[in-house]
Fold:
Amino acid sequence: MSYRELTPDEIDLLIKTNCSSTDWNNIKVAEKFTPIQIKNVNFSGEVFIGNNVQIRNVMNISNYRIENDVLLENISSLIVEGETTFGNGLKISVLNEGGGRELMIYDRLSSQIAYLLVTCRHYPVFVEKLETIIRNYSDSRKSKIGKIGKGTSIKNCGVIRNVWIENSSTLEGVSCLKEGTLLSCIEDPIFIGTGVIAKDFIIQSGSTISDGALLDNCFVGQGVKIGKQYSAENCAFFSNSEGFHGEAVSIFAGPYTVTHHKSSLLIAAIFSFYNAGSGSNQSNHMYKLGPVHQGILERGSKTGSFSYMLWPSRVGPFSVVIGKHYTNFDAGEFPFSYINEENGKSLLTPAMNLFTVGTRRDSQKWPARDKRKDPVKYDILHFDLLNPYIIGKILEGSNRMKELLEKSDKDREYVSYKGLHIKRLLLKTCIKYYEMAIKIYIGEELLKKISEKETNGNEDRFSEVLKYDHSLYSEKWIDAAGMFIGKNDYDQLLNFVAMGKIETLDQLNDEIRKLDKKYPDSSWAWCANFIEKRFNLKIEEMTKEHLSQIIIDWRDNRIKLNNMILKDAEKEFDQTSKIGFGIDGDEETRNKDFQNVRGRYEENKFVLELKKESDEITAIADRLIKALMP
Amino acid sequence: MDKSEVQKRVKKVIAQVLKTKGEDIPDNANFIFDLGADSLQSVELVAAFEEEFQVELPEDKALEVQTVSDAVEFISQYIK
Structure:
């Protein structure tokens, strides 16, 4: 947009409406500037004003470019002082409060790049190169003039200093914003509400920060909600995270990290798809060398009300932590576990969370609850519950349990492993549950490849649809804050950065997107290789008999799993659940009260859907088997 | 194995897992409401029955067993 100088008449009119400037020559305006819309404003430094801009009662505006259709009203100070990067290039101490894993934040940061930067300290050249790339980008953001983007509305605010405000932001009643960027956009605006104090920050599109939230040295990704006096220091919150009431220090809140309750302190840990029960608490300090410890809660984990964990500890994917744990444990190999406390011991029950209503509901709700409306989505999210990463862990966990089972005497109640106790009696059962997950995984991946069309006709069709690109195979996998990446690709990505093959953030993002694009194929390569090992044959050699058996196993185990989930759902309608219903009446009153408030098990939406799913599974499997083996 | 023997051993297992006295367990006691078993203990009971009777019980059907008498009936089907 081109700007012109104010005319003498316009300056006179502005003075008449109680405006002043240290130098009117530094105030530039768009062609259709309407001075009548500016009242009671003090200008200093350079200010550019677009068309259809209303400014009223602003004590000081300095060094800003105000774009079209902006409303600024009742603001004490809106200034840029000196040259600034607007929060870009700032380092925040996530995961390790004592430092050593600083995350250099910038306005287009993704959870994947953040994950690599924070966790790959074993590769100093990579970290150094990546920081240089981010620093170069941050330097490009340097300016002495700030931006207030098109369609922005700022009302009733205190101090706003060195803040870059992108299009369609709404700021209402904010108390203080210093050194940061609001990367809003018309499709997914940012809202900053009353009483918010944010210093040194980046906030991406679609996020809401409100109701007295305190942010100090924080990154806030897309579609995040922080409010109700939440306080966070040195934290990164990635897409769809929510923080209310509680406190966070030095956390890497990966996508869908949710903490809603008072007394919850999340500290020095990495999370994703996480739900913190009320009063969840952790310690990263053992009163020795300072707050140097860290925790890992892998995707899909939950911590129960007033649970406590002592860092360092690691919780495997989709696990539930209940009770207070005063020992350091490592449950990273055991997905879908219950970790509860029994007489001061941390008790691990692997696979128990595989067949709970909670896990099923969570895995269904996350894709539906992606709040991001910005056409550019920075975090790449993979939602599949069973995948090479999780199944790889299930295989590791099964092997560990088999070893423990072999070594343990029958008279022992518990076996110990990495700070945890496992009931010996349950080892065999947990291995069986993991085996169910493996059979379901193989069947589902196979069903993605073959359809009924392929099952009719000759067998040669299978070799064509089941073949895989061996170059895409990676034995180990990584969950990079929401995105699954084969270890080979991950290593190559780090090397590309370290060796200077990737020199810009655009190149790095392109490379990560390429990995996302090939995920279905690389994931299948892993599964196909696994099938080959499991059945001791080449995938191209699979016969109709093999396929039928896999489909039968898939059907039987999916239905078995659904039945177990239904059994878990049934508990929500049992005698215990009715406690407190029909408060002043007899049993009949209690049952009627319960039915009218909670409904009936047989009519519950989740239950009906699960039963329908089981019917569909049976129908699909039966059709395929019939086609394969007429 | 006759049912009275199955019942005796079922009660022995329940007493071990739920840390209660076998003779105090009524024939029709419900694991959860009467004996206070939680969901983990329900799974543990199934595992303990499998070990005691050397049988493989189907996971989903086994979790439907809620009482001592159910357990006796259910396990009896799988004992050779």
The mean pLDDT of chain B is 90. The two ends of chain B are 9 Å apart (CA to CA). The helical segments of chain B are 3-18, 39-53, 59-63, 68-78.
